[in-house]
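Customer escalation, tier 2.

The customer says the design service returned an amino acid string that "doesn't look like it belongs to this structure." They asked us to rerun it and document both sides in this ticket. The original C-alpha cells are below, unchanged.
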C-alpha cells in the first residue's frame, strides 16, 4: 500500500517539476526576446507563464486532496 502512495507522490513531484520547468523556460525565452528587440513577441510569450502555472494548478493532483 505504501509503495503505491510513494509512486503516486513521485509522479506528482515529477509533474510539478515539469510544469515549473516549462514556466521557467517560457519566462527566459520571453526575456531574451525582449532584450533582442522583439517586444511584442516577448509580451506574447510572457503571457504563457501564468497560463502554464494555472494549467498545472488545475490539472495536477495535490497531496491534500488524496
Amino acid at each position: 500500500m505504501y509503495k503505491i502512495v510513494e509512486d503516486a507522490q513521485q509522479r506528482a513531484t515529477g509533474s510539478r517539476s515539469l510544469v515549473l520547468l516549462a514556466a521557467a523556460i517560457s519566462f527566459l525565452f520571453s526575456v531574451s526576446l525582449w532584450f533582442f528587440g522583439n517586444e511584442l513577441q516577448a509580451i506574447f510569450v510572457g503571457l504563457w507563464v501564468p497560463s502554464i502555472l494555472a494549467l498545472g494548478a488545475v490539472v495536477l493532483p495535490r497531496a491534500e486532496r488524496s
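Tier 2 assessment: The sequence is consistent with the input. The CA atoms of residues 3 and 9 lie 10 Å apart. The longest helix spans residues 2-35. Sent an explanation to the customer and offered a walkthrough call.
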